[in-house]
Amino acid sequence: VWLKFVDVAFLYWDLSDVDIFFVDWETVRDDTSSAEKRSRKRKKAQKEQDTNTASVWRTYFAANEWNELLTWRKMPALYTVASVIVLLVGLNCEKFALVTGGDTTTTTTIEGREAATHYYLRLGVAICCFGVVVISFLLFYTVYERFVQNNLLQFVDLCSLSNISLFLMTSASRGYYVHGRSPHGFADVGMYTMMGNMRKEADDISADRGLEPGSDVQTFEIFVPQKLREHWEGVLTRITDTVQESPTGRSLQQSELGRLQQLVVAYSTLNRLFTAFISRAFRDIDYVIRNRTAAERLCNATPDSTERAVFLCDEQQLFQKVLLVGNELRLVWFDVLQFLFWDYVSQSYVVAGVITVVVSLLMVTVYGNLATRNLANKTLIDNRFFL
Question: 291 in helix, strand or coil?
């Protein structure tokens, strides 16, 4: 149990330290009046610092949606353990652990009277109930995500509607990419135009959303060369001491203006870096898009990305591995081991369930705070915009 606790603690730590950046594809449309154009010329110096003057609220909205996904689980400890307690105590399944005696018997209270139970039978009954609950959740979400909604696919759709792409790096060279570049060119539009764009996609009279022409694949597992990482980390390193610690108050102090100015410059620099990379604007940093080979699937091999990046088509939303939902079985197994351990100590399913839920909720709360802080630091978004 304690080894599993350490394993899950390291999992939470790794997930709270993922490199992430939201790429904004929106550009400024030249539909302003002459007076507005003259006003822009007077603000040329400010515009040089923030080349992308499109609305930033689309990025904030996508970041908040991702922040909600960070702690989302299909089988949270509260619902899972509560369902198990209902089976064990409410439906009296704990009676199957009763014995007439033996060296490994313990005394517990069932239906208002003391009865002897066998520890291994208690363990087996609890595991069976967890199995029933887990299978029920899996069957439910299989139907729910197929016919009602899939949160991960909805996030990918949101990226396309917002004209926002997402870079995720779990190591120096390996990560995931969600392509959200709008096939309509602009996303900062009115409701009528947005509904018209969605109608075009429904009628299949617009370009596809995928990264490649004629493809709808928007999610990729990526392996990038060291050059790209050096550019990325170089920008973050220059602003570590002055930018990444966001203020906690609601109002801006005069001393914070310089820090925010550097934040805007750094964000614009990274945004230009990633848009240029995806648009193949670099001669020395290119990428190839392909599917995994059978050998790579079998051995989980890493392709060579020394000279150019490799984008592997991912239609299974493998980017969920950087979320709790992508490590669901690992976390559920931790809840099971916890429950069995606390039941062995207390000889009470209810007490074991309460302690298991409290421990899991505390760990998720700490992880959520760390992950949100990391999200603000890595995306260069002020943490006061996270709801």
Answer: coil
- In the beta sheet, which residues pair with residue 100? none
Q: How confident is the model at residue 94 (pLDDT cuts 50, 70, 90)?
A: confident
Helix, strand, or coil (residue 168): strand
- Quote the CA–CA distance of 174 and 309 in Å, as a whole number: 10
**CA dist 56 → 19, 27, 63, 79, 187 (Å):** 20, 11, 11, 37, 12
Alpha-carbon distances of 80 from 323, 334, 336, 344, rounded to whole Å: 19, 12, 10, 19
DSSP-derived letter for residue 86 is I
Mean pLDDT of the chain: 84
3-class secondary-structure state, position 211:
coil
Segments in 167-225 forming alpha helices (H): 191-202
**Per-residue model confidence (pLDDT) at position 30:** 58
Mean pLDDT of 372-384: 89
Reported in sequence order, the residue ranges of the chain that DSSP labels E, i.e. its strands, are 19-24, 105-110, 113-118, 164-169, 174-178, 219-223, 287-290, 309-313
Dihedral sign from CA coordinates of 229, 234, 235, 241: positive
Give the residue ranges of DSSP H helices in 16-102.
34-42, 44-49, 57-70, 77-85
Q: How far is CA 241 from CA 190, 280, 315, in A?
A: 40, 32, 39
Q: For the residues 254-274, what does the mean pLDDT come to?
A: 80
Strand partners, 105: 118
Q: What's the whole-model pTM score?
A: 0.84
Q: How confident is the model at residue 53 (pLDDT cuts 50, 70, 90)?
A: low
